[in-house]
Amino acid sequence: MSDPTLLTHNRVTLALHELRSGTGRPLLLLHGLGERAPAEVPAVAAAWPGPIHALDLTGHGASTVPAGGGYTCEVLMGDADAAIAHLGPVTVLGRGVGGYVALLIAGGRPAEVRGAIIADGPGLFGGASGPSSPRHTTVPADAVAPPDPFALQDLATDVRPPDYATSFVRQATHGSGLETPITVAAIGRPVWLEAVVGEVGVATGSVAEALATYADVI
Q1: Cβ contact 116:180 at 8 Å
Q2: What is the DSSP string of 37-75?
Q3: Which of 113, 137, 142, 153 could form a disulfide with 106 if both were Cys (CB 3.0 to 4.6 A apart)?
Q4: pLDDT in tens, 176-203
Q5: Residues in contact with 23: Cβ distance below 8 Å, sequence separation at least 6, in sequence order
Q6: Which of 131, 130, 134, 128 is nearest to 190 (CA)?
Q7: Residue (of 89, 70, 45) closest to 212 by Cα position
């Protein structure tokens, strides 16, 4: 893997890796919880006709590990936004927590996200679907990062209300002009994802099918 492009998101430096150069709209890969950008193009994405990039989310891989935790998926959505600001319009393929972030950024930047795919991977389920008892996150003092132990705890238990998730589907559908801006390729279906699947503008199918569809959209 060549040296990544370094992007600044607030006080965090993000590592954006070019896995394959080319022309046309890039495919942006978002990894699962505790993972990092792959060293090479995954087989599942090999058929994508354009360039392929992968982002190390905050607290993972070669990106900054901030002190003290406080992770949310909305922070990671900001990471994806920084990558899109650098790359321009993209199609997003997210694994696990990266799939949830793909949904958020598809709704947050509907004109720039030309299809978002939610795939199985670590951190897909998240925590409760509604408010629960407050908690205090602690990690062992000798824990080694990356991945940041605070990220593993915070993002495995973050609240993901179904109506909040579906609001991003509606923003993506309204703002993208695509018939199905979201594709769910995940077999695992937490409550928030079951709600997403029930929305207009959401397709289900394999990653390969979704990539073939989004490769043809303008």
Answers
A1: no
A2: --SS--GGGTT-SS-EEEEE-TTSTTS---TT----HHH
A3: 113
A4: 999 999 999 999 999 999 999 999 999 9
A5: 50, 51
A6: 128
A7: 45
